[in-house]
Amino acid sequence: MVHVETEAKLLATLTLLLLFHLIIPIISTFSESNLHHDMTLLDEQLKAVEDGTIRVVRVRKDGTGDFKTITDAVNSIPSGNMRRVVVWIGMGEYREKITVDMSKRFVTFYGERNGNENDIMPIITYDATALHYGTLYSATVAVDADYFVAVNVAFVNSSPMPNENSVGGQALAMRISGDKAAFYNCKFIGYQDTLCDDKGRHFFKDCYIQGTYDFIFGNGKSIYL
């Protein structure tokens, strides 16, 4: 089980990230003509959800959590979800190909921390490539839902580095297509097309992104800090 102090830090971090969720709509609509608009620009639906109860489901590979796989945890979230669901992910490597579909909004992936070691985190990995799945569907984790948050998680596409003559070597670690997503202290690791910042408004803070070619691409309107 998660230590009480760790859960307190989890909720504190989520609060910080969700404040950015509320700020993003203001940034995207900001112009000289509305400098004096009031706080009605805030996302009232998001605020209402975050003011409600949070459901926490725990994933541990050894079976001591609620689920052994992240896929099963995501599948437990009902379509049309209207509450914040935190999928707490225990340390280890999870070989899974995961989609958070658009009906499952307000989902958080929160990786277990190893003390003060910010670079040690759970890993979600798969080796799909565009040759077999198509570029957009090769992602190890694909998020089509709005209001997604990830904290302390490594997203990896473990397919080998393509050579210059290879076809279909694109291999995404993450595709984010939902609106108003936030990532804090996450890693995105691959070779070609590592992070597909596909569409929507997103916030990345203290993240590490590794690749050799087009390792960040897409049409998202995002902030990287």
Automatic annotation (TrEMBL):
<dbReference type="GO" id="GO:0042545">
    <property type="term" value="P:cell wall modification"/>
</dbReference>
<dbReference type="GO" id="GO:0030599">
    <property type="term" value="F:pectinesterase activity"/>
</dbReference>
<comment type="similarity">
    <text>Belongs to the pectinesterase family.</text>
</comment>
<dbReference type="InterPro" id="IPR012334">
    <property type="entry name" value="Pectin_lyas_fold"/>
</dbReference>
<keyword id="KW-0134">Cell wall</keyword>
<feature type="domain" description="Pectinesterase catalytic">
    <location>
        <begin position="57"/>
        <end position="223"/>
    </location>
</feature>
<keyword id="KW-0378">Hydrolase</keyword>
<keyword id="KW-0964">Secreted</keyword>
<dbReference type="Pfam" id="PF01095">
    <property type="entry name" value="Pectinesterase"/>
</dbReference>
<dbReference type="GO" id="GO:0045490">
    <property type="term" value="P:pectin catabolic process"/>
</dbReference>
<dbReference type="InterPro" id="IPR000070">
    <property type="entry name" value="Pectinesterase_cat"/>
</dbReference>
<comment type="pathway">
    <text>Glycan metabolism; pectin degradation; 2-dehydro-3-deoxy-D-gluconate from pectin: step 1/5.</text>
</comment>
<dbReference type="InterPro" id="IPR011050">
    <property type="entry name" value="Pectin_lyase_fold/virulence"/>
</dbReference>
<protein>
    <recommendedName>
        <fullName>pectinesterase</fullName>
        <ecNumber>3.1.1.11</ecNumber>
    </recommendedName>
</protein>
<keyword id="KW-0063">Aspartyl esterase</keyword>
